[in-house]
Amino acid sequence: MAGRVFLRACSTAVQLRSGVAARPLQRAMATVRGVPTDEEQATGLERRALQALKQGKDPYSILKPKQYAGTKEDPHIVPCIGTKRMVGCLCEEDSTAIVWFWLHEGNAQRCPCGFYYQLVHHELPK
């Protein structure tokens, strides 16, 4: 409301001062197309992530991971770009302490609480 009043006052002042009919001022987003979408406005890493999600990929692990049983046959999958990674496990649901341990590439490894984790090599997109 205050913006409209200000624009009218400015355009009226310009017309009175110059004596020439001036084109009224417009707001920045008052174009024909309207407000740009997230995809139109995104740049850099955000743009790459949106394009990958559009293709059905999740290169930066943005989406919630798939649930695994945590057994030796169906371990929790941990993606990594190296050969080892530190993993934290909340062994009990209401626990306030996190058990940290190193997970190495290869076979599934067991947490002290009994859950199994397996490191899987993950390539970053280019």
UniProtKB/TrEMBL annotation:
GO terms for biological process: mitochondrial electron transport, cytochrome c to oxygen. GO terms for cellular component: mitochondrial inner membrane; respiratory chain complex IV. CDD domains: Cyt_c_Oxidase_Vb. Zn(2+) binds at C89, C91, C111, C113. Keywords: Acetylation, Membrane, Metal-binding, Mitochondrion, Mitochondrion inner membrane, Transit peptide, Zinc. InterPro entries: Cyt_c_oxidase_su5b, Cyt_c_oxidase_su5b_sf. It comes from the Eukaryota. GO terms for molecular function: metal ion binding. It is found in: Mitochondrion inner membrane. PANTHER family: CYTOCHROME C OXIDASE SUBUNIT 5B, MITOCHONDRIAL, CYTOCHROME C OXIDASE SUBUNIT 5B2. This is Cytochrome c oxidase subunit 5B, mitochondrial. It comes from Salarias fasciatus. The gene is LOC115399104.
